Amino acid sequence: MMTKKIIITLLVCLAAGFGVQAQNRINRNLKTPGKKALLIENQALKNSLDSLQAICDSLMSIQEEETEISAVLEGNETTMEYSAEMTDSLLHLWYENSYGNDFFDSVHAYDMDSVQFTSNVSDEEMIRRLENMNSFITLPFNDNVKNYIILYSEKMPSVMGRALGLSKYYFPIFEEILDNYGLPVELKYMSVIESMLNPVATSRAGAKGIWQFMYRTARGYGLEINSFVDERMDVEKAMDAAARYLQDAYKIFGDWTLAISSYNCGAGNVSKAIRRAGKSDFWSIYPYLPRETRGYVPAFVAAMYAMTYWKECGLVPAEVGMPAQTDTFEIKKNLHFEQITALTGIPSQDLENLNPQYIHKIIPGSEKTYILKLPFTLSSRFMEADLDSMYRYKADSLLSAQVLKDKGRSGSGATGGNRVVYKVKSGDYLGRIASRYGVTVSQIKNWNHLRSNNLRIGQILYLYPRGGAPKASAASSSTAKSSGTASTKSSAGSSNGNTVYTVRSGDSLYTIAKRYPGVSAENIKQYNGLSSDKIKAGQKLKIPKP
Q: DSSP of 201-225, one letter per residue?
């Protein structure tokens, strides 16, 4: 693991190298070199310094990442707080490692713009198979499409096997909805390249669900997103929204390959590519599309091919445990998954698999009627259960007013508020990042407490694409203002019945929370209206009652 000591050692070695170069230059200067020789020498030193800066940025980026990870894994409280942002990042890493890491590795292991795969299946056979699929959507074939066909049908058998297993459950749902809108059922294969049929997939840009909706697009198509429910992860409702989006896109472009492309990069980018190309077919606008979108249609053709000819490709559908049929029930009171499991014996994993839209395993039925989906073979257990007993079971601990309040708070922050953790890459600058996420440079600087526009590779930025960053309340603002001049002999006092803690040097929200059983760092953060985890010595914090 990279440490500061190793980085410093490397920098010392590099500096020593520069010292030798400098001494050599001095020795040469004693011989009075010409102006041209000095210019060449200066340029060489400048290039070396640029290289050193790049190495420093790279090493510091690695060190920062590993410090954060090791701090959490080793429980080093003083190094890194176990914040909501870190939790989200770790959950995303868990998803990649446990569910789809082999998919990401398989797809991104190749530069699809330059790689040239070979296959034992001839081009003629691939073309014949594509033609025999009788697709309503035109399926082109060229070297680009061929590469993707080989990738999906031969290069990642375990991932495609899992997708084939999941498709037995999800595809009938998709086909019915697409048919209701009069859309080609082949569009169901888009879900494979979007998420590999993972209903809780989350991208680093904040897109969620099988159909990978961003927050604004999802809300624009009527999906509910709040502290307890995220319908981007409701398979049926997300498919319905995706169908309406594709229907609108086809009305705009009149071509399915363009409509499909717009789902990936937006109608605006496709329209811009058409204007630049002067033509309106996919392969003419191909060079003008964003790089990640260029492979979208070839990947769509490849996914459709692989899932149609899976037997011929040697793929084997995995057993994924999804039920062939389900029943739905209307829930009109608050209900926790644990209550259902306790009184029916229906496995909690089944509840989560079939109802991933309920963020905290809580169905907020007291607000309005929500749907609970159960395996058909187990639904009789629910029908025969005493519902009153189910609603009462551990309600004081699972569904108390404080629990609902705390869950609502956590949902309105990094998770429910669609907070994005962005890692600065080479070539990034604040204007580009702001444009990408639909925010302003000033907002990014305020959210991340930046004093200048300078960024470094590997730097972490917190963004709020929907512009919903939490704001400090007037009370907490006045508290913060007064904390700079206030002094106290004790770190904790009381004010109007509330415990007030004065931050000391070295404190973090996490270490403060540990002093008060039943109170979390997130509780303190939300209670004081803090927009970040940063606190300073002398600041006064109100401690909520557990």
A: -B-TTS-BTTTTB-HHHHHHTT--B
